[in-house]
Design a protein that fits this description.
With about 475 residues, this protein is an all-alpha fold. The protein contains 19 helices and no strands. The two termini are about 20 Å apart.
Length: about 475
């Protein structure tokens, strides 16, 4: 158990030093682009990038997940796994290029006028960046992942200052900054992994390619489910309430991104550990204890951020964007639930149970779409955040059922009570001024999880001595 934890914490530490510091710098850019861009411009940028994340797993057959999973198994050659993956990446780029060219010739999608070259470049470097991240993860090149994260942030910071403040390029400049933040890390990965030595021609009837596709194609539903859970609300809000309202909803995700960042750091390290430890002695106990520690950390962070929603909005959201604070609390809770689902995902990946991951995503996506349409129509933008919480929980619920034989959490009822307590706090934050009631709720949350908090602090102290 100690060796397992040591390996996991080592990888978390490397990724935390790079990614968390990186994300903090990017987080600090929020006041910059909310002061430079209008709510409509930011809403348009968000819709375009959300569409890219929707198309990417479909057009690539979500091959990057298979690249990561099969690269970790020594029975397969890394060169063959990497080459199969790159083939699907290149094909998807060609398809997007042709699609954008046709839309230009037919003068379709007028909102893309002048932006098509940026959209195409963003897609190219986005998919290559995702590919290299998963390849590096499969090869257990964690340090390279950390360095690439720092490079991305430095480029993002510098490019935003140049394009938005100095050159005053507006939306086009914002796109250019994000494209460079993806492109430079891609170059770094290409050199560090000596990628030119890994690419070779793959036969048409390669048995490994068939095996990889059988694993990753069902996962397209998983990726689309996550996409629907995080972005379908934006399309619904844009259609029912307008693009400007979507700009507010989109920027409200920036505070919950703190929890998403913590989750992302953990999940990248956890994917490696979950797969390595699957089927080992006391694996179920190891998974359960790790989950308990993670959930307490995320829930406490969520409770603090909920009560700080307004102060943070004053600092981060300029002009008309300030009204976005009211959508933050439930999105924070959704991030906690997504973290729980993200924890279970690598265990299913270790089982190669892509079917359960796909089904959970389908159920969550369907619930999200239906609830978004209904609740946004009835109560406006806040309905989208509530729909996101419910669908996030459904995804988690169906995933946890699928790993019930490989996963054991002692006093599981505390997990559910903790999440219910956070929902109560969110309601107080949004609809009352009773900050003292929120303090009481936070104290109750700490009391409920006192035992696991003490254990977590003891483990952390032991590791730092």
């Amino acid at each position: 158990m100690m060796q397992r934890s040591k390996y996991l914490f080592k990888n978390i530490g490397i990724l935390a030093i790079s990614n968390f510091s990186s994300k903090v710098l990017v987080f600090l850019l929020v006041p910059l682009y909310t002061s430079v861009l209008s709510t409509s411009e930011y809403g348009m940028y968000d819709l375009i990038t959300s569409t890219v994340t929707l198309l990417y797993p479909i057009l690539t057959a979500n091959i990057v997940d298979a690249v990561m999973r099969f690269s970790m198994e020594k029975i397969y050659k890394n060169e063959e796994t990497a080459s199969i993956g790159i083939k699907y990446i290149v094909v998807s780029i060609v398809v997007v290029g042709v699609g954008l060219l046709i839309s230009y010739r037919l003068n379709a999608i007028s909102n893309l006028d002048g932006l098509r070259p940026y959209v195409f470049l963003y897609y190219i470097f986005y998919v290559f960046n995702q590919y290299f991240i998963q390849l590096a993860k499969g090869l257990e090149r964690v340090k390279d992942m950390g360095i690439a994260g720092v490079i991305s942030t430095i480029v993002m910071l510098a490019a935003n200052i140049v394009f938005l403040l100095i050159l005053k390029k507006g939306l086009a400049g914002f796109f250019a900054a994000n494209i460079l933040a993806q492109a430079i890390p891609v170059l770094y990965y290409f050199i560090r992994l000596r990628f030119w030595n890994m690419v070779k021609r793959v036969g048409k009837h390669n048995p490994l390619e068939k095996e990889m596709l059988l694993y990753c194609i069902p996962l397209i539903c998983t990726v689309l489910g996550w996409w629907a859970n995080s972005t379908a609300d934006k399309y619904t809000v844009a259609f029912i309430c307008g693009v400007a309202a979507n700009g507010l909803l989109s920027v409200s995700y920036k505070i919950p991104s703190i929890i998403s960042t913590l989750q992302g750091i953990f999940t990248q390290a956890w994917q490696i550990s979950a797969i390595k430890e699957y089927g080992g002695e006391n694996a179920a106990s190891f998974y359960g204890k790790t989950f308990s520690y993670l959930n307490v950390i995320m829930s406490c962070a969520c409770a603090v951020l909920i009560i700080l929603s307004k102060p943070l909005a004053h600092i981060l959201y300029a002009k008309d964007f300030y009204a976005a604070w009211q959508y933050v609390p439930f999105l924070l809770i959704s991030s906690v639930l997504n973290c729980a689902s993200g924890f279970v995902g690598p265990i299913l990946a270790a089982k190669k149970d892509s079917k359960s991951m796909a089904l959970s995503a389908i159920y969550g996506a369907c619930a999200n779409i239906v609830l978004n349409i209904l609740l946004v129509y009835l109560i406006g933008v806040q309905g989208a955040t509530i729909a996101t919480v419910i669908s996030s929980y459904l995804i988690y619920y169906f995933r946890i059922r699928a790993v019930r034989n490989e996963f054991y959490v002692k006093e599981y009822w505390k997990v559910l009570i903790t999440w219910g307590t956070l929902c109560m706090q969110a309601l107080f934050e949004i609809y009352t001024q009773a900050w003292y009631a929120e303090i009481i709720i936070i104290v109750v949350l700490i009391i409920i999880n006192k035992k696991i908090i003490v254990e977590s602090l003891a483990k952390f102290k032991k590791r730092t001595e």
